[in-house]
Amino acid sequence: MAGEPQADCLFCKIVKGEIPATVVRETATTLAFRDISPKAPTHVLVIPKAHYRDAASLATAEPTIAGDVLREAGEVAAQEGVDGSGYRIVLNTGEGAGQTVFHAHAHVLGGRGLEWPPG
Ligand code: AMP
Ligand code: ZN
């Protein structure tokens, strides 16, 4: 069923505590943890606890939770102290755009200069 945990999903396993993660924030609907392979001094992933394959699927099925993810991305940026200097929220969608984990997640990147347009 939509939103239900998937046995073969890495981020569902992190939500269940089956795989460790460095959690920086948690709410009833979201989890924020450090990316295992950081691409910037601050690189945190914010995920919905419910399983959806990408951000648009999440927003279609659960717009309130999609909003929670965005709000938490901002809270992470503030907590990490990168809100003043600027940060980027990235939602890779599809293999061609670099999505490797098919459980919706927002990258919060900051703490260094961020080029525009991104690669
Ligand atoms: P994406 O390529 O947009 O799907 O992002 C997936 C992200 O998950 C990558 O930046 C990975 O470095 C990160 N990642 C993969 N495994 C883990 C893990 N066990 N804990 C934290 N981050 C992870
Ligand atoms: Zn999942």
Beta-strand percentage? Answer: 15-25%
Could you tell me the CATH topology label: HIT family, subunit A
Number of E-state strands? 5
Radius of gyration over all CA atoms, rounded: 14 Å
Q: Going across the major beta sheet, what is the strand order?
A: 1-2-3-5-4
How would a textbook summarize the main sheet? Answer: 5 strands, antiparallel
| Domain module count | 1
Q: Are there runs of 5+ residues with pLDDT below 50, and where?
A: none
Estimate the mean pLDDT confidence: 97
Reported CATH architecture: 2-Layer Sandwich
Helix content estimate: 25-40%
Bound ligands, each once: adenosine monophosphate, zinc ion
Structural class: alpha+beta
CATH class label: Alpha Beta
Inertia-based shape: globular
Can you say what the CATH homologous superfamily is?
HIT-like
Order of helices and strands: HEEEHHEE
Number of separate helices: 3
Distance between the termini: 35 Å
Provide a quick synopsis of the model:
By secondary structure, the protein is α+β, with helices and mostly antiparallel strands.
Describe this structure in words.
This protein has helices at 10-16, 55-61, 63-80, and strands at residues 23-26, 30-34, 42-48, 87-90, 106-110. By secondary structure, it is of the alpha+beta class. The chain has one domain (10-110): HIT family, subunit A (2-Layer Sandwich). Bound molecules: adenosine monophosphate and zinc ion. Residues 6, 9, 11-12, 51, 103 line the site of zinc ion.
